[in-house]
Design brief:
D-Maltodextrin-Binding Protein, domain 2; 2 domains; 29% helix; alpha/beta; 11-stranded mixed sheet; single chain
């Protein structure tokens, strides 16, 4: 996978004009370039997983955050974290890179195998790992970052008031184990969406969807993701697509009330071209986790860099603007907090009650697993 967002290069690569080994300017893409871009245009850079670790470097340490597609928000969030670390580089000399991945399933597998030390996963996977329904290795919560809200994107001619109105239409649910596939499974299990055999199901990846919708090869697609998401922005702009959610019916409200990792959420008005009003829907939290054996000093400085300057983090991408301190600590973090994160919370007097009673909570979830990058 290509590594695209770096905060500082190793000392050997630093400019000799920077006395004192100060950090060079962070290299993640600036917010002005984040609104609408294609992963096809992003260059592949060398894999930084081969860089020396702290035990082979006198002062410098390295962290790679496994994120997601550049068409989603996980990658933007990881790059924002790296930029925050870069701004405080002289305090800790931690080099940070955001690694492109296919999203949540790959990240969870990498945590389990030990390939990833820090990664983003969906809140439902965080919950299922906490209650023993999923194995992602000895993982610990750091914080949650933003809501990943369910969205229904449809052609302008398709008039739907509810998800079940997609019955009989051509709907893209993405590959097996993807976020849209699991979202649809959750909704159809509870009678909120048609059964998969009641639609014409396609399995295209995100980058192709705006072209397919503009050419009327699909009627709609669903996802749960942070908003605004670059690939949905392209569909809305070039195809005049409608943006819908999962309305808060009695059935939906009951589902949310019975599902610990599910929330009533809103896609803000103006997130996409033609979507002027807020859209009510449901969602989960995107969560940042680390293996328990990850250097506590690195996790501490990640936590400190983000939470001590939330304005910087929020300013990196529009999808992060609603990130707020209290939900970042109190929502979505079902795994116990990592020692490094807890150290920062204790210093600041912040309540940190991550973790769930596995015996009491087992089976309380709605039964749908996490999907791809949000």
């Amino acid at each position: 996978m290509g590594l695209l967002a770096l905060t500082a290069m190793p000392a050997a690569a630093q400019s000799p004009s920077a006395p004192g080994s100060g950090a060079p300017p962070p290299l993640p893409l600036p917010p002005s370039m984040m609104g609408d871009f294609s992963a096809d245009l992003m260059p592949d850079l060398p894999d930084l997983s081969t860089l020396p670790r702290a035990d082979t470097e006198d002062d410098d340490r390295f962290v790679i955050i496994h994120s997601g597609h550049t068409s989603g928000v996980y990658y933007l969030a990881a790059a924002a974290i790296c930029e925050a670390l870069g701004a405080t580089f002289e305090d800790h000399r931690i080099h940070c890179a955001a690694e492109r991945t296919t999203g949540d399933p790959e990240n969870a597998a990498a945590l389990k195998s030990g390939e990833a030390e820090v990664a983003l996963i969906q809140g439902d996977d965080n919950y299922r790992a906490a209650v023993g329904e999923a194995d992602i290795g000895p993982a610990r919560s750091i914080m949650s970052l933003f809501y990943e809200s369910a969205v229904v994107v449809s052609r302008p001619e398709v008039d739907i008031a509810a998800v079940r109105d997609l019955d009989g239409l051509t709907v893209n649910l993405g590959p097996d184990e993807s976020a849209p596939r699991h979202l649809w499974s959750l909704l159809s299990q509870h009678g909120i969406a048609p059964k998969p055999d009641a639609i014409v199901l396609t399995q295209y990846e995100r980058p192709a969807l705006h072209r397919l919708m503009c050419e009327e090869e699909i009627d709609a697609y669903v996802d749960w993701i942070g908003h605004p998401a670059p690939y949905i922005g392209r569909t809305a702009r070039y195809c005049n697509a409608r943006i819908g959610g999962v309305p808060w019916t009695e059935t939906v409200t009951d589902l949310v009330d019975r599902t610990p990792w599910l929330y009533r959420t809103v896609i803000p008005g103006g997130s996409y071209v033609g979507q002027d009003e807020p859209v009510k829907t449901i969602g989960t939290r995107a969560t940042l986790v680390a293996r328990a054996d990850t250097d506590a000093e690195i996790v501490y400085h990640i936590t400190r860099a983000v939470l001590s300057d939330l304005e910087r983090f929020r300013g990196y991408a529009r999808a992060l603007r609603a990130s707020s301190l209290v939900p970042m600590i109190s929502e979505g973090n079902y795994l116990p907090f990592h020692a490094g994160a807890r150290r920062y919370f204790d210093e600041q007097g912040l309540p940190a009650a991550a973790g769930v009673d596995a015996e009491a909570s087992a089976g309380a979830g709605a039964g749908a697993g996490a999907g791809a990058d949000g």
